[in-house]
Amino acid sequence: MAKPLSITRSLPTFSVTWRAYFEMTKPKVVALMLLTVLVGMCLAVPNAVPVQPLLAGMLGIAMMAGSAAALNHLIDRRIDGLMARTYNRPLPKGRISATRALIFAASLGSLGFIVLYSLVNPLTAWLTFASLIGYALVYTAYLKRATSQNIVIGGLAGAMPPLLGWMAVTNEFHGHALLLVIIIFTWTPPHFWALAIHRRAEYAKVDIPMLPVTHGVEFTKTCILLYTVLLAIACLLPVLVGMCGPVYFVSSSLLSTGFIYKAWQLKYRDHDGLAMQVFRFSIYHLMLLFMALLLDHYLWS
Question: Which residues in 44-83 are b (16+ Cβ under 10 Å) and which e?
Answer without folding.
Answer: beeeebeeebbebbbbbbbbbbbbbbbbbbbbbbebbbeb
